[in-house]
Design a protein that fits this description.
heterodimer, A: about 70 residues, mainly alpha, 3 helices, about 70% helix, rod-shaped, B: about 210 residues, alpha+beta, Alpha-Beta Plaits, 2 domains, 4-stranded antiparallel β-sheet
């Protein structure tokens, strides 16, 4: 009788541990999927910021360079 | 077969009876119920809940990514719009870049510039030899045209000529040069011999 009761308790512990393991596994999987970034490389390149300013100093310099000689 | 069953029945009879007796106790019923409950939850969590939660997580992550991409694209569109405005503002002056670094060799304009500067500074060409240029297998990027120049003129005129040539909008560099005295009639002039280099930028062109 005592032996049977011990088996029952062991089985209960195993079932609880199994449940905890499975829930942790699901939790980690879900967290991994939520934090995973999978933007394609092409899109990533297209999203790179662009500096809309054009350095007109170079054009000013070129305009002055050879101004008298063209 | 029948004999085997009977033999097995007698062998395991006591266990079966014990199990039946145990099932009648409250403790065993509670334990069994709990164990079965936990295993059932585990089973369904593994086979039913996990795929569902993963699908939900995937969709949430995808929505977040799309929103982020959308936000970044909006910023990029604004930047492109600003860049286009800036480009339209400087577009009329972009010929300066082409004049400085033409996309083709443009011998005629180069020679025209050199000739006009020479005549303007009273310097005469005694020789002008261009290096051989191969157009086959030409790479994309900055290219050089080298040429040997021989000029005759006074020191002041040569100095003025070189200053103006090196300040032309078209880039002209000198890698080395030499000056030698030369008597032309009664006048003492200088003979300038130099290796000059001009630059141009080739672009990749598709051969049809």
């Amino acid at each position: 009788m005592i032996r049977k009761s011990k088996i029952n308790r062991d089985l209960l512990v195993i079932s609880i541990l199994t449940l905890i393991t499975i829930l942790s596994w699901i939790g980690m999987d879900v967290y991994h999927r939520l934090t995973k970034t999978a933007v394609p490389e092409v899109v990533e390149r297209q999203l790179l910021p662009l500096d809309p300013k054009i350095k007109t100093e170079v054009l000013n310099y070129l305009e002055n360079r050879g101004k008298n000689y063209q | 077969m029948l004999l085997s069953f009977k033999r097995d029945f007698f062998r395991y009879q006591k266990y079966l009876l014990l199990t039946a007796k145990l099932a009648e106790t409250k403790k065993a019923r509670v334990y069994t119920g709990l164990i079965l409950t936990f295993f059932t939850i585990s089973f369904f969590a593994l086979l039913a809940l996990r795929p569902t939660f993963l699908t939900i997580a995937n969709l949430i992550a995808e929505i977040r990514q799309k929103e982020e991409v959308n936000r970044k694209l909006s910023v990029k569109i604004q930047q492109l719009s600003l860049a286009q405005t800036a480009y339209f503002q400087v577009a009329p002056r972009l010929y300066l870049v082409d004049e400085t670094l033409p996309t083709e060799i443009e011998f005629s304009s180069l020679l025209g510039n050199l000739e006009s500067e020479a005549s303007g500074n009273e310097v005469s060409f005694s020789g002008l030899t261009f290096e051989k240029i191969s157009f086959e297998g030409q790479k994309e990027g900055l290219q050089e045209i080298g040429y040997k120049t021989s000029l005759i003129g006074s020191f002041e005129n040569l100095e003025s000529f070189l200053e103006k040539v090196f300040n032309l909008r078209r880039i002209i560099k000198s890698s080395k040069f030499s000056l030698t005295k030369k008597m032309v009639g009664e006048a003492e002039l200088l003979d300038f011999s130099g290796d000059l280099v001009s630059l141009f930028q080739t672009k990749k062109t598709k051969l049809e």
